[in-house]
Design goal:
Distance between the termini: 36 Å
Radius of gyration: 25 Å
Largest sheet: 7 strands, antiparallel
Strand content: 25-35%
Helix content: 10-25%
Length: about 475
């Protein structure tokens, strides 16, 4: 452990009083010249720092810090994070009790400093046996707008969103898989900032707002998977979307091989998108430049580099929410706001917000089946994640949305000291794009097969960051 780390730990061997905390924070302010303001459940150190001129740092300069000891404050955190560079702003989330909420956001003056912080401070031991997690901050600027008339074009949707909300930068609309003249009934709206997106969501979210006479569905878009630059530099697989359903793998391979025969290793097509594997990365880059926007069987395709599945062991910000200040935490014994999302009871979350209502429980009502009711065959992947009440179903849904193969479960057993058979599942997630895989296995055993599978799915979701907006941190207790 580093010397300054030891000093910080030794200085907090005993619980500090409120007076001692205040004295330590005042000493930090006097030493650094930074300001410190507490408001809306957070305490802001800096933002901007002394002598700062110009606009705030751009996106990509902020990191998320989790697993902070609840009695650790800025006087200990600032010296740690200054190791990576100059801090523009540190926002520590606070409880009414005066404890911190276990997480913070640190914005540096440059992206390079933020990346260095992730590299050297993730899994850093801030106190004996206490390791923090540091990763890129999710600064979501994109909204999902559903129930849009399928006949509307991109320009119409863009103009309408600019009329009803401010700060719109772009609209992303995908053609229907079977009829390219129509959209898929939804769009993604990109805003100039997280704040602009949050204000737009606040205006549209009540459910009464209508576009073209339709009540639209509004929520945060799933953040794009973050893959480090070093990994992306090795990718030699292209992701091709907006293909015709009828287009074959042989046709795709032939089209991508036209400008240089023999460069394509194989093609994997799923519905209206495909992954094109190349023998060499330079050929993949060249093909992407040539083929993006080209027509295949009458469809204008989009071509990008495929993003590999997340590597095992990469720590991620455990939250996807309407605001960076809204985070779910592990439930406490005295928590009266705990919500359970079905069986088993260990799959529980707690909303740690000050002004927002708790998310609704999963609907479990049954309804009578009347004669004449029309039933329509559908795929489970066309539903919303809120329709699923188990972690195993959530995981299957999440893999499908990310274009991964379905999760594979491998059962293992052991015998306890009293002769009882205990079970645990290993979950393997395979990337369709590059054939890589990640493995996840919880560190707890279960007495039943069902409980072991559910626990393994919970554990995997925790590491992959589940896409549903209100589940961000799962309490992993053995069944």
């Amino acid at each position: 452990m580093h010397e300054e780390n030891k000093a910080a730990a030794n200085g907090c061997g005993k619980v500090r009083s409120g007076t001692q905390n205040e004295a330590a924070l005042l000493a930090l302010i006097e030493k650094t010249g930074y300001s410190m303001i507490q408001e809306n459940g957070q305490r802001r150190f800096g933002g901007p720092p002394p002598g700062w001129e110009g606009p705030p740092p751009p996106r990509g300069c902020e990191v998320f810090v989790g697993k902070i000891p609840r009695d650790m404050y800025e006087d200990e955190l600032v010296p740690v994070f200054e190791r990576a560079g100059k801090i523009y702003e540190l926002r520590l989330m606070m409880e009414f009790s005066g404890e911190n909420r276990g997480y913070a956001f640190v914005m540096y003056t440059t992206k390079e400093e933020a990346q260095l912080a992730i590299k050297i401070l993730n899994n850093y031991e801030v106190r004996p046996g206490k390791f923090i997690g540091v990763c890129v901050s999710l600064d979501n600027c994109r909204l999902f707008i559903g129930a849009i008339p399928k006949v509307k074009k991109k320009e119409e949707i863009l103009n309408e969103m600019k009329k009803v909300t401010e700060g719109v930068v772009d609209v992303i609309v995908y053609p229907n898989a079977t009829d390219k003249t129509k959209n898929r009934g939804f769009a993604f709206v990109e805003y100039e900032s997280h704040r602009a997106a949050a204000m737009a969501r606040r205006r549209l979210i009540p459910g009464t707002f209508q576009l073209w006479g339709h009540t639209v569905q509004v929520n945060w878009a799933d953040p794009e998977k973050e893959v480090d630059e070093e990994t992306m530099q090795r990718v030699k697989v292209l992701y091709v979307r907006n293909l015709m359903i009828s287009t074959t793998e042989d046709t795709i391979k032939a089209e991508f091989s036209k400008f240089k025969p023999g460069i394509v290793e194989r093609v994997k097509k799923l519905r209206d998108y495909a992954f094109v594997h190349f023998f060499h990365r330079e050929d993949a880059i060249a093909a992407m430049s040539v083929m993006n926007g080209k027509c295949i069987d009458g469809a204008s395709i989009e071509v990008t580099l495929a993003k590999p599945v997340n590597r095992e062991g990469t720590w991620k910000q455990p939250q996807i929410g309407p605001s960076s200040e809204n985070l779910l935490g592990f439930p406490k014994k005295d928590d009266s706001h705990q919500k359970s999302l079905g069986k088993p009871a260990s799959l529980s979350v707690r909303l740690n917000r000050q002004h927002s209502p708790s998310p609704p429980e999963v609907e479990r009502c049954t309804y009578p089946f009347f004669p004449g009711i029309k039933l329509t065959p559908i795929s489970m992947y066309s539903l919303k994640s809120s329709h699923f009440s188990s972690a195993a179903m959530h995981l299957d849904y999440f893999c499908n949305k990310n274009n991964w193969a379905p999760p594979e479960y491998y059962l293992h057993s052991t015998t306890s000291q009293d002769g009882k058979v205990l079970l645990v599942y290993k979950v393997v997630i395979r990337s369709i794009a590059d054939g890589s895989q990640s493995c996840f296995m919880p560190d707890k055993l279960c007495a039943t097969v069902e409980g072991a599978k559910e626990l393994a799915a919970q554990f995997t979701l925790l590491h992959l960051a589940p896409e549903q907006a209100y589940i961000t941190l799962l309490s992993l207790n053995a069944a």
